[in-house]
């Protein structure tokens, strides 16, 4: 089981930028094998990391406030939202089938990460992310974005 997401963040090779309101085209490189294996164990047996995105606020594109990690196992998908703030924050992560049904959500005050959340059919699955000092004071919000997994 993952004991420290900070170790995962330190060993991630690279992440692509993500606008606060939309997921940009992923160009992230896979994390080193030990880090990927650690998080894959959180998602469950057989998952492997496919992408990671740096998440920024609209007001400060140079500061990464969170990292969104995507994992796959066949047709199944898993996501984890890493907290880059260094202190406990309100975080909400939802992963839904492409038709908006069968959503898996994890939310609360977290110092390390929200998730894992799973979807049985990752094809065009949507992801929603919220982060802030509290659920009513958000500085990051991404709604129903379909780019976490491929839609080919």
Number of helical segments? 2
> What's the helix-strand series?
HEHEEEEEEEE
Mean pLDDT: 76
Main beta sheet, described?
5 strands, mixed
How many separate domains? 1
Spatial order of the strands forming the largest sheet: 1-2-3-4-7
Overall strand count? 9
The outline comes out as globular
Helix and strand content put the structural class at: mainly beta
Regions with little confidence, pLDDT below 50 for 5+ residues: 1-37
User: Which strand-content bin applies to the residues?
Assistant: over 45%
Note the gap between the termini: 32 Å
Q: Helical residue percent?
A: 10-25%
Radius of gyration: 14 Å
Structure description:
- The protein is mainly beta.
- The protein has one domain.
- It is built from two helices and nine strands, in the order αβαββββββββ.
- A five-stranded mixed beta sheet has the order 1-2-3-4-7. Strands 6-5-8-9 form a four-stranded antiparallel beta sheet, with no helix packed on it.
- A hairpin with a 2-residue loop joins β8 and β9.
- The chain is globular, with a radius of gyration of 14 Å.
- It starts with a helix and ends in a 7-residue tail after the last strand.
Short structural summary:
The protein has 152 residues and is mainly beta.
């Amino acid at each position: 089981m993952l004991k420290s997401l900070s170790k995962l963040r330190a060993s991630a090779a690279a992440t692509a930028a993500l606008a606060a309101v939309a997921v940009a085209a992923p160009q992230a490189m896979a994390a080193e094998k030990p880090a990927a294996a650690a998080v894959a164990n959180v998602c469950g047996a057989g998952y492997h990391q496919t992408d990671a995105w740096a998440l920024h606020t609209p007001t400060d594109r140079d500061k990464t406030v969170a990292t969104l990690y995507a994992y796959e196992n066949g047709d199944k998908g898993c996501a984890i939202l890493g907290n880059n703030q260094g202190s406990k924050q309100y975080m909400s992560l939802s992963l839904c089938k492409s038709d908006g049904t069968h959503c898996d959500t994890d939310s609360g005050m977290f110092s390390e990460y929200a998730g894992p959340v799973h979807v049985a059919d990752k094809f065009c699955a949507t992801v929603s992310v919220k982060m802030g000092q509290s659920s009513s004071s958000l500085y990051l919000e991404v709604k129903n974005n379909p780019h976490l997994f491929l839609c080919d």
